[in-house]
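input
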Amino acid sequence: MEDTIGIDISKDTLDAYWLSSREHRQFCDDKAGAKALAFWARKTEVSRVIFEATGIYHRCIETGLAQHGISFARVNPRQARRFCEGERFGRHRFKTNRERPAG
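output
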Protein backbone atom coordinates (compact mmCIF):
# COMPACT_ATOMS: atom_id res chain seq x y z
CA MET A 1 0.00 0.00 0.00
CA GLU A 2 1.30 3.42 -0.93
CA ASP A 3 1.73 5.95 1.85
CA THR A 4 -0.58 8.91 1.32
CA ILE A 5 -1.82 12.14 2.82
CA GLY A 6 -5.53 12.84 2.48
CA ILE A 7 -6.79 16.41 2.65
CA ASP A 8 -10.23 17.72 3.49
CA ILE A 9 -10.49 21.19 1.97
CA SER A 10 -12.82 23.86 3.27
CA LYS A 11 -13.06 27.58 2.62
CA ASP A 12 -10.70 28.52 5.46
CA THR A 13 -8.69 25.40 6.33
CA LEU A 14 -6.92 22.35 4.97
CA ASP A 15 -7.21 19.34 7.26
CA ALA A 16 -4.44 16.91 6.33
CA TYR A 17 -4.14 13.34 7.58
CA TRP A 18 -0.99 11.25 7.07
CA LEU A 19 -2.22 7.68 6.79
CA SER A 20 0.77 5.62 7.97
CA SER A 21 1.62 7.71 11.03
CA ARG A 22 -1.99 8.70 11.79
CA GLU A 23 -0.87 12.29 12.12
CA HIS A 24 -3.32 15.18 11.63
CA ARG A 25 -2.27 18.71 10.72
CA GLN A 26 -4.32 21.77 9.91
CA PHE A 27 -3.25 24.57 7.55
CA CYS A 28 -4.86 27.79 6.33
CA ASP A 29 -6.38 27.59 2.85
CA ASP A 30 -4.17 30.30 1.35
CA LYS A 31 -0.77 30.54 -0.32
CA ALA A 32 1.15 30.40 2.97
CA GLY A 33 -0.87 27.36 4.09
CA ALA A 34 -0.32 25.59 0.77
CA LYS A 35 3.42 26.24 1.05
CA ALA A 36 3.52 24.91 4.62
CA LEU A 37 1.54 21.85 3.56
CA ALA A 38 3.93 21.22 0.65
CA PHE A 39 6.98 21.43 2.94
CA TRP A 40 5.34 19.04 5.42
CA ALA A 41 4.37 16.60 2.65
CA ARG A 42 7.91 16.65 1.28
CA LYS A 43 9.30 15.95 4.76
CA THR A 44 7.01 12.93 5.19
CA GLU A 45 8.16 11.47 1.85
CA VAL A 46 4.67 10.18 1.02
CA SER A 47 4.04 8.92 -2.48
CA ARG A 48 0.89 10.95 -3.10
CA VAL A 49 -1.41 13.62 -1.68
CA ILE A 50 -5.12 13.10 -2.34
CA PHE A 51 -7.91 15.66 -2.13
CA GLU A 52 -11.39 16.31 -3.52
CA ALA A 53 -12.00 18.87 -6.22
CA THR A 54 -13.77 21.71 -4.44
CA GLY A 55 -14.17 24.40 -7.06
CA ILE A 56 -12.00 27.38 -6.25
CA TYR A 57 -10.87 26.12 -2.83
CA HIS A 58 -8.52 23.40 -4.10
CA ARG A 59 -6.69 25.53 -6.67
CA CYS A 60 -4.18 27.07 -4.26
CA ILE A 61 -3.13 23.71 -2.82
CA GLU A 62 -2.93 22.14 -6.28
CA THR A 63 -0.60 24.91 -7.47
CA GLY A 64 1.52 24.71 -4.32
CA LEU A 65 2.01 20.95 -4.55
CA ALA A 66 2.83 21.13 -8.26
CA GLN A 67 5.41 23.88 -7.71
CA HIS A 68 7.16 21.70 -5.13
CA GLY A 69 7.09 18.57 -7.31
CA ILE A 70 4.76 16.61 -5.02
CA SER A 71 2.55 14.00 -6.66
CA PHE A 72 -1.16 14.54 -6.07
CA ALA A 73 -4.51 13.18 -7.13
CA ARG A 74 -7.61 15.33 -7.38
CA VAL A 75 -10.70 13.16 -6.85
CA ASN A 76 -14.25 13.80 -7.99
CA PRO A 77 -16.32 14.35 -4.79
CA ARG A 78 -19.26 12.37 -6.18
CA GLN A 79 -17.07 9.32 -6.83
CA ALA A 80 -15.56 9.51 -3.35
CA ARG A 81 -19.04 9.73 -1.80
CA ARG A 82 -20.31 6.81 -3.90
CA PHE A 83 -17.30 4.71 -2.89
CA CYS A 84 -18.00 5.34 0.80
CA GLU A 85 -21.68 4.56 0.36
CA GLY A 86 -20.79 1.31 -1.42
CA GLU A 87 -18.36 0.31 1.30
CA ARG A 88 -20.96 0.95 3.99
CA PHE A 89 -23.60 -1.00 2.08
CA GLY A 90 -21.26 -3.90 1.36
CA ARG A 91 -20.19 -4.36 4.96
CA HIS A 92 -23.61 -4.24 6.60
CA ARG A 93 -25.71 -5.90 3.96
CA PHE A 94 -25.39 -9.42 5.37
CA LYS A 95 -26.02 -10.37 8.98
CA THR A 96 -23.36 -13.07 9.12
CA ASN A 97 -20.43 -14.20 6.99
CA ARG A 98 -22.41 -17.33 6.03
CA GLU A 99 -24.94 -15.17 4.22
CA ARG A 100 -22.22 -13.38 2.27
CA PRO A 101 -21.64 -14.83 -1.21
CA ALA A 102 -18.21 -16.25 -1.99
CA GLY A 103 -15.77 -13.99 -3.84
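quick obs: The helical segments are 31-44, 59-67, 77-92.
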